[in-house]
Design brief:
430 residues, alpha/beta, 4Fe-4S ferredoxin-type domain-containing protein, 19% strand, globular, single chain, eight-stranded parallel beta barrel, Fe-S-bd_prot_LdpA_C, binds iron/sulfur cluster, two-stranded antiparallel sheet, TIM Barrel
Length: 430
Amino acid sequence: MALSFSCTASLTPQRQVKVNIGSKNCLQNVKNLIKTIGIPTISTTPHKSLQKGNWVKLICGASFEDVVDIRNLSLVYTLAGVDCIDCAADASVVSAVNEGIEAAREIVPLRRPWVMISVNDHEDLHFRKAEFDPEDCPLDCSRPCENVCPANAISLEKANSTVQLSYGTNTRGVLTGGVITERCYGCGRCFPVCPYDKIRVVTYVRDATATAELLRRHDVDAVEIHTSGRQTKFFEELWSGLADSIRYLKLVAVSLPDLGDSTVSSMDAMYTIMEPQLHCYNLWQLDGRPMSGDIGRGATRETIAFAVCLAAAKDRPLGFLQLAGGTNAHTVDGLKKERLFQTPAITKNSKDDTSLTNSHSSLCASIGGVAYGGYARKIVGRILCSMQSQHGLAHIEGYPEYLLEALIEALGLVGTVKCYDRTLIGKRNK
Ligand code: SF4
Ligand code: SF4
């Protein structure tokens, strides 16, 4: 499988953003493109987007912590009009997201997307990292791990290692490098390809107390709880650990897999646990085929099948429905085929707060929207990668020609849900 992008930065660059004269024209083209499409005027508030069925969330990745990429991705997708940016529950990552949002709003005064942090109640695919000791790897290994990684989170080089022995020194060739931890988002594609079984999986659970601290920040609007849905005791423990921090939020999302016949009863059980403290909107993220959107067209089928089942479930608990897991440029077409794209349904999308939804039975879209992760990162990531290979760690607005290119990609994807005029994006405003 081809690499989608390659970046190895982990620190926020301190460089001053300078824009040369040629690039200034390009920055004007960025502004013109956003104005031509009309994003500032057609963007609705995030909760209205959920109601209309045109909510778009960028998933930076629950374990992806490369703050340079995260800042630039947040900037580009804010300009493209997303409603929410979902990121790892880590203070520096949250700061990078907010920095990207504010940098975007300095270019064009758009409404601020909600910032969501993702946590898990127990072991979960999204909360793990690959790990191995490169010195343990045979020197002649063809390194399939490196090639298969969609985040280019594995970097290996041949080097010499000299060991001091009693009779002198011994020099031998070894591999150095390994997993770039902050870039690994736990997709698991490297695990089965290692012919020597050298790669370990390190799983972790986000700490509830640290999460509660983050939720009290003024620049965090939402939380997403990833759960297997099979054992509500873990969900209950996390929920009680988050305590009163929930009251600061605008949205609580629960990301769950398709549990077949027991999906709705599991949702019911979790909703019952949340209900006493739930005074904001809530959303169910239908996680079809996790972390696979970049693989291809077929990856999106599972989340659409999941949506078909839940949209038809009349007895499910309150909350918006949103697709994730395998979502890509084909997702909206799949929804349209199932007549689920922005089709109205009488649903109940929040507890009972009439000030939030106008009515307990507001006329809402049956599917609130779509979240894009690996695919969204891939299409913009390759431009970020190209910029970094030319200019090193950089703020993308300092290189508006790259920003324009990245924005066109992002608008193409976000526009499938937001129904932007594709012909205007295609003109590229040159
Ligand atoms: S788990 Fe996925 S992201 Fe992490 S190193 Fe392996 S292939 Fe790369
Ligand atoms: S495939 Fe396995 S043995 Fe080969 S470089 Fe990667 S981790 Fe090492």
